[in-house]
Amino acid sequence: IDSTDVPCIIAGGLDEHNVTEAIHITNPYGVDSFSRTNYEGRAADMERCKDPDKVKAFIEAVRNA
To answer: Which of 20, 21, 29, 37 lies in disulfide reach of 65, CB 3.0 to 4.6 Å?
Structure first.
């Protein structure tokens, strides 16, 4: 990422447990979390919904990185 002037956003498998390390390694313009901040183990339609606790933890981890 450092070798380009294009702002890069990292995504894919990021959650509150690994986003800090990912930010420190890549120094991205931004980060994205999709499935890892969703509800788990619920009906199929709920698995596509965000879990507010996971979202909050993800945002806190990003801000503290």
So the answer is: 20
Per-residue pLDDT at 17 exceeds 90: yes
Show the tokens assigned to 64.
Answer: 């503290």
SS3 letters across the chain:
CCCCCCCCEEECCCCCCCHHHHHHHHCCCEEECCHHHECCCCCCCHHHCECHHHHHHHHHHHHHC
pLDDT score of 44: 63
Q: What is the pTM (predicted TM-score) of this model?
A: 0.84
Region 50-55 average pLDDT: 94
**pLDDT at res. 1:** 73
C-alpha–C-alpha distance, residues 58 and 65, integer Å: 11
Residue 5 has, within 13 A of its CA and on its CB side, a CA count of 0
